[in-house]
Amino acid sequence: METVGGTGDPPEAPAVPTADPDEAERRLAMPLGEALVTQRAVRRVRPDPVDDRLVMRCLELALEAPTGSNGQNWEFVVVKDTAVKAALAAQYRRSWRVYGGLGRRLRRDDQTARILRSVQWQVEHFEQIPVVIVCCLRGGPRLPFVPLPPVLLSSHYGSLYPSVQNLLLAARAMGLGGALITLPLWSATAARRMIGLPLGVEPCCIVTLGWPLGRYGRKRRKPVASVVHLDRFGNRAWEPGPAS
Ligand SMILES: Cc1cc2nc3c(=O)[nH]c(=O)nc-3n(C[C@H](O)[C@H](O)[C@H](O)COP(=O)(O)O)c2cc1C
Predict the structure, then answer these.
(1) Ligand 1 centroid vs 181 CA: distance in angstroms?
(2) 171 with 178: CB under 8 angstroms?
(3) Is the alpha carbon torsion for 213, 218, 223, 228 positive or negative?
(4) Burial of residue 143 (number of CB atoms within 10 Å: 0-12, 13-18, 19+)
(5) In what order do the strands lie in the sheet with 177-181?
(6) What is the pLDDT of residues 79-97, one digit of tens each?
(7) Could you give the residue ranges of the DSSP H alpha helices within 14-127?
(8) Which of 216, 229, 221 lies closest to 3 in space, CA to CA?
(9) Number of domains observed in the structure of the chain
(10) Is there a domain that residue 1 lies in?
(11) Mutate to test the pocket of ligand 1, among 3, 125, 167, 181 (most ligand atoms within 8 A of CB)
(12) Has residue 178 been placed in a domain?
């Protein structure tokens, strides 16, 4: 069995699928720190169904997130219909042919190779993923012929991603495998048609959910001091100095 972790830490046992909301609730008591360090893109999942009550609980917790001006202008389309998944999969395959080809040419390290293999798996098995959630936003900061400050765009899209992260963390705590993806939405127009979105609702990203085929483990990230600056950009005050 493949580990989904990447640091060599001993992986934990794979989560036992459950349809019991009480058991899911018990799992949600996982320490926050543990959920944060082990939540990661889990693309390889079993085709077994995920109980709707668990999906709805994850979404309920997603809605605990903040939104700009407390607009709560999110909409989530839970896709379980194989025909709709197949339409999204066709888009994913099309965009992955371009994007994955570029990735293979530009980055040849082990970590990238692992990600590419895992995306390839997801692209090939998309229709079998039990739950595909299209995360959308209502409205938007567009006015014809009026240039708007980037911060408005930031506030608009930034109103969705905290909820998506909540969703991923809730799924992780329950033992579900979740992944945030965007490539199937390469053409927003086509995606809109597939799931019947009105013009005022924009598809922004997708979260896939299922019971993991692998196990959770720690992931690799940059050292915090390498990306944190004090007062002004470039003053890496927390970077360890040369050994004296
Ligand atoms: C905005 C955004 C878009 C992403 N789009 C995709 C995607 O289309 N397909 C995919 O497989 N992963 C996608 N990812 C997931 C990233 O590849 C993943 O978060 C990254 O490789 C780190 O993985 P890890 O958390 O397992 O270490 C996306 C992530 C973000 C934040």
Answers:
(1) 6
(2) yes
(3) positive
(4) exposed
(5) 74-79, 131-138, 201-210, 177-181
(6) 999 999 999 999 999 999 9
(7) 21-27, 32-38, 52-62, 82-106, 110-125
(8) 216
(9) 1
(10) no
(11) 181
(12) yes
Residue whose pair of structure tokens reads 């927390």 in the numeric block: 238
Q: 203 lies in which domain range?
A: 21-226
Rounded mean pLDDT of 200-217? 93
* Structure confidence by residue, pLDDT tens digits, 121-148: 999 999 999 999 999 999 876 777 788 8
Instruction: Tell me whether residue 124 is in a domain.
Output: yes
Q: Is the CB of 37 under 6 A from ligand 1?
A: no
This prediction's pTM: 0.92
Average pLDDT over residues 85-114: 88
Rounded to whole angstroms, how far apart are CA atoms 121 and 43? 8
Judge whether 143 lies within some domain: yes
Q: What is the dihedral of CA 177, 95, 1, 83, to 10 degrees?
A: 60
- Would you state the pLDDT for residue 61? 98
- Of 115, 119, 132, 186, the residue with max ligand 1 atoms within 8 A of its CB, to mutate for a pocket test, comes to 115
Cα–Cα distance between 186 and 184 in angstroms, integer?
6
Q: Which two tokens stand for residue 13?
A: 């046992």
pLDDT over 60 (residue 51): yes
- Tell me, what CATH number does 109's domain have? 3.40.109.10
Asked if 206 contacts 183 with a C-beta cutoff of 8 angstroms, the reply is: no
